[in-house]
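Section 4.2 – Deliverable D4.2 (structural model, holo form)

The reporting period included a commitment to supply a predicted holo structure for the target in complex with iron/sulfur cluster. Inputs used:
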Amino acid sequence: MRQIAMVIDLNKCLGCQTCTAACKTQWTNRNGREYMYWNNVETMPGKGYPKNWMDYNAGWGKDGQLKIGELPQIPEEYGIPWEYNYEKVAEEKDAILKPEKEPEWGPNWDEDVGEGEYPNSYYFYLPRLCNHCSKPACLAACPMKAIRKREEDGIVLVDLQKCRGIRNCIRACPYKKVYFNPKRARQEEGIPGQTEKCIFCYPRIEKGLPPACAKQCVGRARHVGFLDDKGSHVYKLVKGWKVALPLRPDFGTKPNVFYVPPLSPSKFNEKGEPINEQRIPIDYLKKLFGQEVENAQKMLQTEMEKKAKGEKSELMDILIAYRQKEMFKL
Ligand code: SF4
Ligand code: SF4
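Output (structure tokens):
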């Protein structure tokens, strides 16, 4: 079985949400999918989407047991797209455009908030999609065997012929990247709706094209390829240079979206002088990307310094991504 993978360089992601818009316009802008973001970009540290998605106690336990957590509530934890008073504005001269009901939460609600006190405040962007895991908790949790992992590329798909809307997949996915679509209800069959998720743009993959989120990425932050292809950027970054790491490896699902962790600017002391301490706490990065994050940062730093001195660095050339087409090997 082959496995397709994506590497996202967090030092190049600028939080522009072009990937989010590319995905939404392609797949989720109607028919009960309006609240869904198969791809979204969160500001970290932050609560994310759905709210506090990391705290659902889902995925695989250390004892190898599957943990089927709680369901995030719609709309409370997701936020729904809200409507504006367009008609009032059109009809009344002095009316001001505003939401019809004051919203309390929504995707990207805490954008660019981050943590820390100025001048030591910090944040970074974390694009998220289904990880097309090698040990998918969603698949293991489905009593209808409606979720499958394709042999040819490891893409994880929901079979809508079989899904009966039980939602164990949503409960079990620790990344909360499966969504419920109530508009796919079939009352006569007792089906309350069905679940839907990122399909890694498989119709594009089958034509040798990268997923829309990667192709449209303004920051040239996303590399796509097969993990067994030694010539792909993905192989080189994950297995060669070992600078691309899975998100929350402790969830146990063996994700196939990997992240080049953010390098951190220095902290300032009270006199405003930079000190030898990272602004993003290393324990926070270890929680997100595992214990290897320090080694990955050191490798990135070393190669960056080499490049700055005018020496050759294959790693930096890959990450700079001079030619977009070289980022994708499909
Ligand atoms: Fe399943 Fe969640 Fe892994 Fe995607 S991220 S394959 S939905 S467990
Ligand atoms: Fe980041 Fe690229 Fe998405 Fe922009 S399009 S938010 S740079 S991953």
